[in-house]
Amino acid sequence: MKLVVIGSGYVGLVTGTCLARFGNSVVCVDTDKNKVETLRKGEVPFYEPGLSDMMARNMAEGRLQFASALTGALDGAEVCFVTVGTPSTQDGGADLAYVESAARDIGRAMSGPLLVAVKSTVPVGTNGKVEAWITEELRKQGADLRPDMASNPEFLREGAAVRDFVEPDRVIVGSESPEIAERMKELYSFVEHDKILFMDIASAEMAKYAANAMLATRISFMNEMANICERVGANVDSVRQGMALDTRIGNKFLYAGCGYGGSCFPKDVRAIRDFAASSGYVSQILTAVDEVNTRQKEVLYEKLSGHFGASGVSGRTIALWGLAFKPKTSDTREAPAQTLIRRLLTEGARVQAHDPRAIEETRQVLGEHQGLIYVHDPYDAVNGADALVVATEWDVYKQPDFERVKRLLKAPVVVDGRNLYSLSEMKRRGFDYYSVGRPAVRRPAEPERGA
């Protein structure tokens, strides 16, 4: 098939590249001309394992191209995917400006039959709006055409997106026509048939939000349990194990930490809460999920502040391991590390930060600040610092040279926002160690001089 993908961000580039792998001719269209030129050079503007090599192969074999305008790209295309962003508005709703722009561009460029598949995460009812926007532009030109519509939400995990696309847990297709369903089934012929779910468009739109909201709820629930554990003397690791063996619960997304971030969970929880409210329903659970997560991002600073006490963090140097919201990605959107950095800088501390992939992305968001130093070796971040904070569970941080860390720090203080290290090991090695939902490890108080 000839396919067009509008938007060459995270979802669009993975979608286009993977569909080209299966023999389709794909054009990815993006209005950002600089991004298009970067892609034409074979450079991926973000980090995603396996994507760069697959993109290069498809380009070399002539199945994947990039364009900055739809004009001409839609000629002869059978399916056009809409994969543009739907960022949060100020009140938490989904901003559909990019979706509307893409739809109107389709209407202006469409010259024959076309199936428009909306893969962007959009509120229930958006596919109908997309069809109306396209049709309005077609009518302006006197074209007697109407698009076929399908909802095809994405379920890609950053850091595993290529595998998720080619070996998905499920593919959801929302359509009002058996013929459209068959065309989408043909497109996804590489997926086992029992993993392709067909439903009405509204349910398909809702399914994406419901899945993300459920996962975010599990995270916030465990963070709530962790905060209670700390106050009553329990260990959240033991609590999690006791829960996970219950087959009704399982072990996924039950790890306590310093909060979730990224491009999906935060905005999708707020968006479903917003369009539920506009439909006359107030979601108390989702409001709490978002509030707990916002509060949880303050945990790292609170633990640092609690350790230093009245002397505070002003004038101190804090080492930070991890800037991305999760490992195996360069995405820093709503990352807990950014909450910590902003608070530390406001309180007069200096930050020495390391991340394997997300330094440039963080610099673009936070800008240059004399109190924020980026380093390219994790031990350079620790050198001369008053404490180390771990905010992202990259593999490189999981088994560090603790003796070296201890020598480089001014004092052996570690705040672990991802519970990477064992309490017994940190005690044996002589660290003051603070994690989430587990008892703090404190060194014995040093006797006063002359005692």
Notes on the structure:
The protein has three domains: 2-199, NAD(P)-binding Rossmann-like Domain (Rossmann fold), CATH 3.40.50.720; 209-295, Orthogonal Bundle (N-(1-d-carboxylethyl)-l-norvaline Dehydrogenase, domain 2); 297-434, NAD(P)-binding Rossmann-like Domain (Rossmann fold, 3-Layer(aba) Sandwich), CATH 3.40.50. The model has no long low-confidence stretch (mean pLDDT 96). The protein is elongated and about 85 Å long. It is α/β, with parallel strands linked by helices. Strands 3-2-1-4-5-6 form a six-stranded parallel beta sheet, sandwiched between helices. The chain has a six-stranded parallel beta sheet with strand order 11-10-9-12-13-14. It has helices spanning 10-21, 33-40, 51-60, 97-109, 126-140, 161-166, 178-187, 201-232, 236-244, 265-278, 284-296, 299-308, 336-346, 359-366, 378-382, 402-408, 423-428; strands at 2-6, 25-29, 64-67, 79-82, 115-118, 148-151, 171-174, 196-199, 317-321, 350-354, 372-374, 387-390, 413-416, 432-434. Helix 14 (359-366) links the parallel strand 10 (350-354) and strand 11 (372-374). The N and C termini lie far apart (83 Å). Helix 1 (10-21) packs across helix 3, helix 8 packs across helix 10 (265-278) and helix 10 (265-278) packs antiparallel against helix 11. It has 17 helices and 14 strands.
Could you give me the name of the CATH homologous superfamily of the largest domain? NAD(P)-binding Rossmann-like Domain
Low-confidence stretches: none
**SS-based class:** alpha/beta
Beta percentage is 5-15%
